[in-house]
Write a structure and sequence with these properties.
The chain is built from three helices and 14 strands. It has about 220 residues and is mainly beta. The strands form three sheets. Strands 1-6-13-14-5-2 form a six-stranded mixed β-sheet. Strands 9-10-11-8-7-12 form a six-stranded antiparallel β-sheet, with no helix packed on it.
């Protein structure tokens, strides 16, 4: 199955969360409905694009609106409070100051990447990461990644720069020591609310698509 690269455009809001999964267990004699969670659960990424004013030249909004029939996207999470390096990047980034004519003295907006320090099996909720060179900047509520999958940090315990992490959704594939632990991860998912996205589309070229909800897809 083809996996599409989600386009890069300005966003107003972004939230990665893990609502889990469940099924309706039925009704009690008193009329109260209850939910029994499934093991594992799944992840959701919600994106609210900012106004797109380039639709005449680059019809990204309408392209996204056409991809609502089960197509799979890989989305690079934008910097936000959920992305650990977002707050520290200005302190740790390297300026373009190598004397070249294109140097503008601005900080290079690079990504910080840790490594996985121990093996992790598919289905595990525990993982160990090595943040040497980055520092212990990952905290509960941050999102980390492996391959093209993202995970929410539920608990974390440090020994120096080595962190033992408990995730809220299980690993979808095995982790090998030395694999990259992305501090600005990718998310792989399908759009689940196509009608909501299309509601605000117009022919004037200034478009603010509705909230885009992507649900996790394992490929």
């Amino acid at each position: 199955m083809k996996v599409y690269q989600f386009p890069t455009f300005r966003i107003a809001n972004q939230l990665f969360h893990t609502p889990g999964a469940g099924y309706e267990g039925g009704l009690t004699s008193g009329g109260a409905q209850f939910i029994t969670p499934e093991p594992g659960g799944f992840s959701v990424l919600e994106i609210q694009p900012a106004i797109i004013d380039t639709e005449w030249d680059f019809p990204l909004a309408s392209w996204i609106m056409s991809k609502i029939s089960g197509q799979i996207f890989r989305v690079r999470l934008a910097p936000s409070p959920q992305i650990a390096y977002s707050k520290r990047r200005g302190m740790m980034a390297v300026p373009w100051n190598n004397g070249e004519t294109w140097s503008n003295q601005e900080n290079w907006d690079g990504d910080f990447t840790a490594t996985y320090a121990a093996a992790g099996l598919q289905g595990s909720l525990n993982i160990t990461i090595d943040l040497t060179g980055v520092g212990p900047i990952v905290l509960p509520g941050h999102v980390i990644g492996h391959d093209f999958d993202a995970y929410l940090v539920d608990e974390i315990c440090y020994t120096g720069n080595i962190a033992t992490v408990i995730l809220t959704t299980p690993l979808v594939r095995d982790v090998v020591p030395g694999d990259n632990c992305y501090l600005r991860p990718w998310f792989t998912g399908r759009i689940s609310n196509g009608a909501d996205i299309r509601a605000s589309y117009n022919h004037l070229g200034h478009v603010t698509p509705g909230n885009i909800i992507l649900q996790q897809a394992v490929v």
